[in-house]
């Protein structure tokens, strides 16, 4: 008998791990796909929640590896009903000096891989009678940010990819949503965003609620999109930035 699962890319740490936690808490089996294949490192997670994580290794920039990973899941009795494209990369550099290699590296992982992962999952979602794809974008998608030329362009592409697939695949029962976080505190940037950290004074001025978001905030929102709350929602970009991008 097939077991239903949701694939989350980049679930080994950071925001992806929090998404995997929220989905598993909701009762979903979660395929945690990354280059390491590690499952989230939450030592306090209840055993029945951790038991719903299954690690799988694949590099999202390698379309053949993605196709093989999805095929392997299917051959092992998993029915894929959802996908969260979370794996991503941030590089900042002055725009005049950004190398085209860096540009392609960012576009490959943040935008092109979203296309190839969606293409790889498509036949599985169709076979399942439909499903949900959540792409993790960024509120930088509509901002002009110094030293972030490639990152901003890649996340704007995620919004466009989301809209196109949402319209084209709606007839197959597939919904596609872009969740676009603002500043989110994770292990990697915790020092910079800590109350005495170098970014904190800036964030206190810019975010109306005077604090960054957490990976848990993003995980809870993404998990909600896999409930009936999301039934009539598709193609949209949902900003989860504490109002930063709309604040004067
Ligand atoms: N943190 C923020 O403030 C923030 C704000 C807005 C948007 N975002 C977006 O949220 C997403 C997650 O960000 P994060 O800060 O949580 O990132 P992170 O902590 O750097 O984690 C990245 C995850 O992606 C995986 N990964 C990286 N390259 C991969 C590849 N080629 N193939 C497969 N997996 C790969 C990593 O695992 P392996 O190393 O094991 O492969 C890891 O699990 C990204 O799309 C990012 O742009 C983050």
In short:
The chain has helices at 14-25, 47-50, 63-75, 100-127, 149-169, 190-193, 200-206, 215-224, and strands spanning 3-9, 29-34, 53-57, 78-85, 131-136, 174-181, 184-185, 213-214, 237-240.
Q: What would you say this structure looks like, in words?
A:
The chain is of the alpha/beta class and 248 residues long. It has a single domain (3-240), classed as NAD(P)-binding Rossmann-like Domain (Rossmann fold, 3-Layer(aba) Sandwich). It has eight helices and nine strands. It has helices at residues 14-25, 47-50, 63-75, 100-127, 149-169, 190-193, 200-206, 215-224, and strands at residues 3-9, 29-34, 53-57, 78-85, 131-136, 174-181, 184-185, 213-214, 237-240. The chain has a seven-stranded parallel β-sheet, sandwiched between helices. It has a two-stranded parallel sheet with strand order 7-8. The longest helix is centred in the middle third of the chain and has 28 residues, at 100-127. The radius of gyration is 18 Å and the shape is globular. The N and C termini lie far apart (54 Å). The model has no long low-confidence stretch (mean pLDDT 97). Bound molecules: NADP nicotinamide-adenine-dinucleotide phosphate.
